[in-house]
Amino acid sequence: EAGVVQSPRYKIIEKKQPVAFWCNPISGHNTLYWYLQNLGQGPELLIRYENEEAVDDSQLPKDRFSAERLKGVDSTLKIQPAELGDSAVYLCASSARVRSIGPDTQYFGPGTRLTVL
Amino acid sequence: RKEVEQDPGPFNVPEGATVAFNCTYSNSASQSFFWYRQDCRKEPKLLMSVYSSGNEDGRFTAQLNRASQYISLLIRDSKLSDSATYLCVVSGYSTLTFGKGTMLLVSP
Q1: Residue A56 gets which letter from DSSP?
Q2: Distance in angstroms (rounded) separating the CA atoms of residues A114 and A30
Q3: Each residue of B2-59: pLDDT tens digit?
Q4: Distance set, CA A116 to CA A19, A76, A88 (Å)
Q5: Would you give the DSSP letter of residue B69?
Q6: Fewer CB under 10 Å: which end of chain A, C or N?
Q7: Which residues contact A61 (CB under 8 A, 6 or more apart)?
């Protein structure tokens, strides 16, 4: 079974430029997450989707970050304009709702490593 | 106080050693607890869930103390392949909160 797919794997841009990351979750997984991971830190949630609805975007810096999951399958995360402090790994994860309570197991993609110069 | 706190390490141990990691969490309403493993430049992967009664998976034993808001992971008979960062994770309903991770280095 294919895992979570992300592209690109690496991206180097200059500050103030736009950048976009793409994620294709595991087939059948209705929940999709975008996380940011800085060096030496754990992943931090940016946004969570249930199908095409963003149910938790409280940690998404909405002045420059946006995300969409139009058909409830793959998703795009965009930064415009990028700042030096945005350099990090952007991880996508997905899960399937199999339990009525508690979190479902999240499966992570390999991430996109962003460097802003 | 951070939501999930871990000693960042690194923990340097020889093969065959037993090593224990600890984690504390601040939200007493947390419902679910996990240990994830993250290899260098790789994505996190679920190692095991943590249950109140304690649970074991091969060489790995996880324990939860809700009263003290404390989680532990014990690795017995360490292997070189156990070298990684171990992330303590707590959850409310759906959102996972990760600790910074504890780095383990197992040497020959």
Answers
A1: E
A2: 26
A3: 799 999 999 999 999 999 999 999 988 888 899 999 999 999 999 999 988 889 999 9
A4: 10, 19, 9
A5: T
A6: N
A7: none
Tell whether B98 is within 8 A of chain A (Cβ): yes
Q: How far apart are CA B32 and CA B90, in angstroms?
A: 6
Query: In chain A, which residue's Cα lies nearest the Cα of B30?
Result: A102
Does residue B93 contact residue B31 with C-beta atoms inside 8 Å?
yes
**Does residue B32 sit at the A interface (CB-CB below 8 Å)?**
yes
Residue B21 token pair: 């990691």
Check CB contact under 8 Å for A109 and B46. no
pLDDT at res. A1? 64
What span, in angstroms and rounded, lies between the C-alpha atoms of A41 and A39?
5
Polymer length in residues for chain A: 117
CA–CA distance, B98 with B90 (Å, rounded to integer): 7
> Which residue in the set A44, A103, A109 is minimally distant from B94, CB to CB?
A103
Amino acid found at B19: V
